[in-house]
Amino acid sequence: MSQLYLQRFEYRAAAKSEFDQAWTTALQTFAKSGNWGGAETGIRHVKSYGTAWGGYVLIEVDDADSFARYQLHHSMNYGHMVQITFEPIFDLDAALEQRVRQMST
Questions:
Q1: How far is Cα 61 from Cα 42, in angstroms, rounded to an integer?
Q2: Is the pLDDT assigned to residue 85 strictly greater than 90?
């Protein structure tokens, strides 16, 4: 069974050259694996969203070991540039659908 995660990243202050190098590594990783953490299997990249301060990435995880490697890749390659958190999320609309329907009748 898979789990959706919302990954949040917030930029830290750094020299432009460090910022550019981190993004180069990130883009090379994404081009090779299809996700920002270099996982060959077990992680499905759904969408990335950018903001002025960083952004969000929605991923679907179906293998705990792959997720561990995904997180380790972030720590080793981007941790000096961004603060990263991973939040498991669920479909609140689907979870509450029956209760809402009952209240509307």
A1: 6
A2: yes
